[in-house]
Amino acid sequence: MASEAGSGRIIDLGTSVRSNTGGAAIAAGLMIFFGFIFLDEPAGGSGWYSVGASLLFLALRVGGLVMVGVSAWLSLGHLPALAADAAASIVLGAMIALAGGFMLIDGGWWVQSLVILVSGGSFLTSGLRNGRDFLDMWRIETADDQDDEEEDVAVLSASKDSPLVSDLASAKAATQAKPRTRNEPELIDMEPIRRPKSGRASKADQPVELDGLSPGPPPAKGAGPSAGSSESYLAKLARKDKSADQ
Q: What are the pLDDT digits (tens) for 182-203?
């Protein structure tokens, strides 16, 4: 049972309720010890001291049993248990404080009466604080439930083609998505390079030919003067020289 407060903090209501279990259990243990083990049942009387002693004895015994049940309920983390703790603490604190006041007025030992009066005041203060905490948590939970109900009603009343449905779906998906850390590299999907299966290159791999810059084709065999024609020409010159000498 978690909720967001106005300041942006996330409050776990169950944990906040369970945090009061220890205090309620300690109060229950002390009240049971003094009510059932340490103190004896007071003798009847007509003075204010007797009224205060009887009221204190009743508060310790009944309050001890009540606080046992409240502490067990608080351990479950239910929000109404905090309201029960507040109500029980206020009632028991008022009874113990009145008992201490009656005993102090009627001439009881002032140290004992003052301790009882302070104990009742601490119970009363704890009950008021728990009641304020319960009201604050109840307002937070009620506000969250109202927001969820308004969102559900808006979705149900909207048509399937309405952009509200897609907006709410995208908002929920965005909140559920895991945010990427600062130093984590971003993954990019890259398409695989497709290579031709045959040995022939594609048109993109063909060499580019530029007009006027490409070398001409090599001369064909036999196009120029051959070695045999040059030798016959020299032979003719040699015969002419011989004929001239003769």
A: 555 555 555 556 655 555 555 5
Structure-block tokens of residue 32: 């049971």
Distance CA 188, CA 155 (A): 35
Q: Which two tokens stand for residue 128?
A: 């008021």
Comparing CA positions, the residue from 25, 119, 19, 122 lying closest to residue 66 is 25
List Cα–Cα distances, 243 to 88, 230, 233, 234, 236, in angstroms. 154, 20, 16, 14, 11
Packed helices 21-32 and 79-105: angle between N→C axes, nearest 10 degrees: 40
Query: What is the rounded distance in angstroms from the CA atom of residue 241 to the CA atom of residue 237?
Result: 6
Residue 42 burial by Cβ neighbours in a 10 Å radius (0-12, 13-18, 19+): middle
C-alpha–C-alpha distance, residues 46 and 238, integer Å = 173
Alpha-helical runs (H) found in the chain: 13-18, 21-32, 48-74, 79-105, 110-157, 163-176, 227-245
Determine the angle formed by the axes of helices 110-157 and 163-176, rounding to 10 degrees.
130
Predicted model pTM: 0.56
Tokens of 193: 């390079």
Phi, psi (5° rounding) for residue 74? -65, -35
Q: How far apart are CA 214 and CA 204, in angstroms?
A: 19
User: Residue type at 199?
Assistant: G
pLDDT tens for 169-179 read: 665 555 555 55
